[in-house]
Amino acid sequence: MTKADIVEKASAAVDMPKRKGEVVVNMVLRCIIDALAEGERVDLRGFGSFRVSSRHDRTGRNPRTGQEIDIPAKKVPLFRAGKEFRRRVNDDM
Question: How does DSSP assign 55-89, residue by residue?
């Protein structure tokens, strides 16, 4: 499923034009991204939670040459599925 599919389903569910549905979906995603960029945690009951984790700088190895390289510290977004999300995914299997 793509973002366009989500826009189409959401627009049809609330009987709104696709253009407006796209604005709503984009705004929800933008709010999540902005909150994570500010270091906040985003909890969506029944769906899951998003948070940011920090990774320390470390030394790695180039798999092609075997040469050691320095990997800088960075922040990575993490998602943990909620209880309802996990239950629905497992029940449909």
Answer: E--EEEE-TTT--EEEE--EEEEEEEE-HHHHHHH
Strand pairing report for 48-55 and 74-81: antiparallel
Task: Report pTM.
Answer: 0.79
CATH of the domain at 22: 4.10.520.10
13 vs 9: CA distance, rounded Å? 6
Distance of CA 19 to the CA centre of its chain: 23
β-bridge pairing 58-61 and 48-55 = unpaired
Q: Which domain does 13 fall in, by range?
A: 3-91
Tens digit of pLDDT for each residue in 64-81? 999 999 999 999 999 999
Domain count, the chain: 1
How far out from the chain centre does Cα 55 lie? 18
